[in-house]
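To: structure subgroup
Subject: Chain for Friday's discussion

All,

I'm putting the inputs and outputs inline so they're searchable in the archive.
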Amino acid sequence: MRGRTRVQWALAVAVAVLPLAACTSGPGAAGGSVLSSSWGDPQNPLEPSNTNEVQGGKVLDMIFRGLKRYNPRTGRAENMLAERIDTTDSRTYHVTVKDGWTFSNGEPVTARSFVDAWNYGASLRNNQKNAYFFGYIEGYDKVHPDSGKQTAETLSGLKVTGPRTFTVTLGQKFSTFPDTLGYAAFAPLPRAFFTHHKAWLDKPIGNGPYTVESYTKGAQMYLKKWAGYPGPDKARNDGVTLMVYTDSNTAYTDVLAGNLDLADDIPAGQLKNVSSDLDGRYINTPAGILQTLAFPFYDKAWNTEGARKVRTGLSMAINRAQITKTLFRGTRTPATDWTSPVLGVDGGYQAGLCGAACEYRPAEAKKLVQEGGGLPGGQVRITYNADTGSHKEWVDAVCNSINNALGDDRACVGNPVGTFADFRNQISQHKMPGPFRAGWQMDYPLIQNFLQPLYYTDASSNDGKWSNKQFDTLVDRANAETGQKAAIGLFQQAEKVVRDNMAAIPLWYQNGSAGYSERLRNVALNPFSVPVYNEIEVG
């Protein structure tokens, strides 16, 4: 992927899953078959190619359907509006859109609905945060150059060939490209988006199972079931009222009091009581989120053969099992690879790939650090943003574990940065003095998404500037494979290169958590930790 926005969002997600803070509206459980759910105002207008954070993403998932949809249980990419996507070379794809689909205003969904939307999203002029998702398509460098003005209005790799058919030509082979098309940035758009843009932003028109009926910023958004929705995943309730909260504790107590139906973020302080408080109405399920410690490989002190031993030793000095049990009470699971269990074995997840390097082995940790020449500068400073209290807690716990393993109370200290924005600025300017907090929430459930954006040379989210020719070659070969099984096998080989070099220290997989009222049935979180709203039943 190209662009830096994705990592900013991924790190923000790590914050978003932790306490949010005080309700700004008067919450109340919705009546009839309408349910109420905790929410936060979206950061940006709800344009599919401009929404890259969780709260806005929840709405897009309710009001749009794309060529693919990720199965809410398995995470697998399944055809939705795509009748078929064919290729003979993993570079040019022929797409046929299903007949009979319309937007909620009655306009048919056609091939042009997709092509126009993707061209809009890619254009530098439109300044869309998800523009880099179109970076694989041929001509992206002309419509969204790294510097200077764009020299083309549309992507040369997109061609409408009929009312329901279009072709996508990529700049390089990418065998699993079709599986990325369930991401919201690839949603189709109606003509009203372009002809009456301001009105559309005030009240978005989509093609999903819900329509936006009203939105009061700082208070709530009401989404109504679309009775004419042509898809197979129709809403089983009459609507959803998303209530704005800025404190997950308030949302939680409102669920207990019957004033709110669903809270999809259980605060850490309530985890010890949630099972008994909600009597079986608590969800704690794996999500495609991995937390890691990244390294500044642009600092020569961290980019030597000795430093590789030090990085591995630091990983072995972290007692993941104790930290996740004590701090996170089962909502985090010690990581044993660099992807996520939600991918499944068929998707490339390799349980235990990290091996002893991700196990707490203090004696071996100390030995490796010594063999590697000791800690660069004599001390590890883990940098994190301090505008949420949660990061200080786990960074302190990680440092305590490292200090105990190395027998030095000053071996590791936290290095707080005042705000998330300052933190990201320092990362972008390559000013990290040592390991720094990192995290990744999958854009789509592919092993490629956990590896290439983060570790490929000069990749968009490779903040530490790690570079390895063997890894790059394996990724290139994987992308060029026409068969998914062969591609995944090569990506797994590439992940072993990440392991052997400890390009980043995997800490823990993050779960999604939620609690709900007695009014609701069939409540579940998808692999992205978002409630499957259309399947929830009320009453």
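Points worth raising on Friday:
The chain has a mean pLDDT of 91.
The CA atoms of residues 295 and 435 lie 5 Å apart.

D.
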